[in-house]
Amino acid sequence: MKVLIYGKSIIGSQLESVQLLFDLLNSEEAQVYIYEPYLKEIAGFINIRTPVGKINHYEELREKNIDFAFTLGGDGTILSAVTLIRDTGIPIMGINLGRLGFLASIEEKRIDQALQMLKQKRFRLENRSMLYLDSSKPIFGENLFALNDFTVLKRDNSSMIIIHTYINGEFLTSYWADGLIVSTPTGSTGYSLSCGGPIVFPRSKDFIITPVAPHNLNVRPLVISDDSVISFEIEGRTENFLCTLDSRWELITQDFKLSVRKCDFGIQLVQLQEMSFSKTMRNKLMWGHDTRKNY
Predict the structure, then answer these.
(1) Which member of 23, 67, 75, 264 is catalytic?
(2) Which of 119-128, 129-138, 218-227, 278-287 has the lowest mean pLDDT?
(3) Domain span at residue 250?
(4) Main-chain phi, psi angles of 112, to 5 degrees
(5) pLDDT per position as a tens digit, 198-211
């Protein structure tokens, strides 16, 4: 088995779990590759008993025929890993060393069990769609895709902005707001949810358009088909606005013409047999839990 280990940083409370993962992979005689910036982070903290390969770039990864990518962190780590994995089709198993973790569903205490289930093929691959950003000016380099969401936002303490929005070339509305979110079904449990957007099941073929603090109070989040192209014209009193793809951001101006469509490729998440989106929602959001008994 060839695996990629991807992480961004490590803290003291994670050392035991990360060491356990490397020990287990060593006992399984797995061929291990590590994202090089993460290897530098864990050097001196983690005892890696066998030689490992280093991966820095997408082009290097494409040549290795990796079976699985293990991300060590939270959902943000998976979002970051997507920019490396891209269209390689490598399934991602998210090990949650963070907090809430909708995407990184494997808890630290279940690392051993998860690897055994992987070995026994007691898992399924869940396809997750992504969105793609087209821009009239260069932005975000080669990484013009997002697993969670695209946003355009006002900067700092500036006044609200106006986002003229079109669907397939037809005018939808002008949002007077602090910003606008376009999320995938995967991203529906992220920023969109915190701004009042709906939770959408991962296999739904939708985009969710959610305004951020809208000043025209009669507008509400919208769910539209992901075969739509959503385009924007932005205006405001300040020179710059903030544009994001997942956790990445760039500054833009009113001269930018932006549109969002479904990405030509998606990613695959490893889901253990016993896991499901419904179960994750119940556990993470405490659906059905009667908290009154704690008082």
Answers:
(1) 75
(2) 278-287
(3) 131-262
(4) -60, -50
(5) 999 999 999 999 99
